[in-house]
Amino acid sequence: MSRIFGDVRQIAYVTDDMERALTFLHETAGIGPWFVARDVPVAQCRYRGEPIEIRIDAALANSGDMQVEVIQQHSPGASIYTEFAGRHGFGLTPHHYSSWSERYDAVMQAALAKGFAIVQEGRSRYGPFVYYQHPAEPDFTFEVTELTAERRSIFDQIRAAAVGWDGTDPIREGWPEPIL
After folding, report:
1. Contact residues for 137 (Cβ-Cβ < 8 A; gap 6+)
2. Where does 10-163 sit in CATH, by number?
3. Average pLDDT over residues 152-179
4. pLDDT greater than 70 at residue 1
5. Hey, what's the torsion of the CAs at 90, 157, 176, 105, to 10 degrees?
6. CA–CA separation, 44 and 42 (whole Å)
């Protein structure tokens, strides 16, 4: 557990080919089933302080309690994802780690006090998120997502689908609808 961010709940990757990445992860690594939200606009998004328009595919699955995310950006502009790909290329090198916090604002204050900088932030239909980097180690990116009731429901359903998963129906279109 991080004293600043809380428990690491997710590891994420950036790809230029969602199908290739998910096929490897479910066929070779045995992780799944995958729930894929396609061509999602990210509202109120800012990258390095400037507003951006961004559209992504985001796939989620669980391996035990650890959530795995794969992101593919479709919009042409600069973002934390294109910055990473420019330095490391595409593949299954971790892009970021994430915690889900019910103390979103307090975590933000603690991260900024420790010298972390906000690199990208936005809001999905389920609430805000922010990516931090520290100048001492700019390749370490940590995302904090506000754990809203909607997100908790979605994440719980994805985790439950992975328990005892037999490999059938490995890629599922859309994320589960929140049950509130």
Report:
1. none
2. 3.10.180.10
3. 97
4. no
5. -70
6. 7
Q: DSSP secondary-structure letter at 36?
A: E
**Three-point CA angle 148, 11, 173, nearest 5°:** 70
pLDDT of residue 112: 97
Locate 83 and state its tokens: 């910055």
The pTM of the whole model exceeds 0.85: yes
Report yes or no: 94 and 81 within 8 Å, Cβ to Cβ: no
Give 79: exposed, middle or buried? Use CB within 10 Å, 0-12, 13-18, 19+. buried
Whether the bond between 33 and the residue before it is cis, its omega within 30 degrees of 0, is yes
CA 62 to chain centre: 12
Helices (H) and strands (E) in the chain, counts: 4, 9
DSSP 86-111: HHH-SSSS--EEEEEES-HHHHHHHH
